[in-house]
Amino acid sequence: MSQPIPSGSLVGRTALVTGSSRGIGADTVTYLAQAGANVVINFRNKAPRAEKLAAQLRELGVEVLVVQADLTDQASVADMMAQVQQTFGSLDLLVLNASGGMESGMGEDYALVLNRDAQLNVLDAATPLLHDGSRVVFVTSHQAHFIRTTPTMPEYEAVALSKRAGEDALRERIPALAERGIGFVVISGDMIEGTITATLLERANPGAIAGRRESAGKLYNVSEFAAEVTLAAVEPIPDDNTRLVGDVSSFAGE
Length: 254
Fold this sequence. Notes:
Helix 1 (23-34) links the parallel strand 1 and strand 2 (38-43). By secondary structure, the protein is an alpha/beta fold. It has ten helices and seven strands. Strands 3-2-1-4-5-6-7 form a seven-stranded parallel sheet, with helices on both faces. The protein is globular, with a radius of gyration of 17 Å. The longest helix has 17 residues, at 110-126. The chain has helices spanning 23-34, 47-58, 74-88, 110-126, 142-145, 157-171, 174-179, 196-204, 208-216, 222-232; strands at 14-17, 38-43, 64-68, 93-96, 135-141, 183-189, 242-245. It is 43% helix and 15% strand.
């Protein structure tokens, strides 16, 4: 993994990345730790995987807090933020990475609960820990960001609509966050090779990933997109609070 931001550039900062025991979240939290940030690894299940990652990151000389939390459970999220406050006192960076909705056996409205309601709840619970100079990053996909103007595959539509609803709800918080000097940016990427979502989409619609790769010319892998998420955490925020990663030529404007 090549480091996207300079080593030592985040010393003294604290970052919480939701859903960071695997995939994009794990690589993002690793990049942040490599830059010197103390980090919070959040996971829903599979504690051993989170603890293994934490042990690796502690070898970098940073402080690592591992917190199990179901983001759809307000009490669980409140407890996570209490642990962050007790350990670090405040939060410089909140990366809203965890999402889902294609899992089997969940309730009919699970995608909306996780991708909209839980995102707002996590931000609201974290806001007292954020301060002037802090930043919030919301991770989404082109298929969700552009869902109002560009149809996606049927298997992903409910998730895309719920993630766009979450993005819209979070954007409504921008003025209040800005009043406190807290930055907010949406980072949107194309399908990411090697993610759970891509695997599930491919299973439901064989050839979907290859088709999108051919159309776009290139699809980012997990570590490449995580590097872009890390950059979104530190680089100047665009005027429209949006960073688009990868090809968007086949998506109509919002």
